[in-house]
Design goal:
Elements lengths: L1 H27 L6 H24 L2
Helix pairs in contact: 1-2
Length: 60
């Protein structure tokens, strides 16, 4: 069951990270030059936090 939590969370993190990056670019009024690195940074931080929480709550 834990693998299902990780999979659903990963999909949600992808969508949230894309949304956050688009909002940051709208706020800045331009496309960022190193867009993929910024996206990676956003999804990495969110993944580390959320996956740690999943492990904590599922007892893994």
């Amino acid at each position: 069951m834990e693998i299902l939590y990780f999979t659903v969370t990963a999909i949600a993190l992808y969508v949230i990270s894309d949304w956050a990056l688009n909002r940051m670019e709208e706020f800045a009024g331009r496309r960022f030059e190193h867009r993929s690195l910024i996206f990676f940074g956003i999804i990495l931080v969110l993944a580390l936090v959320s996956f740690a929480l999943i492990r904590e709550f599922t007892g893994g």
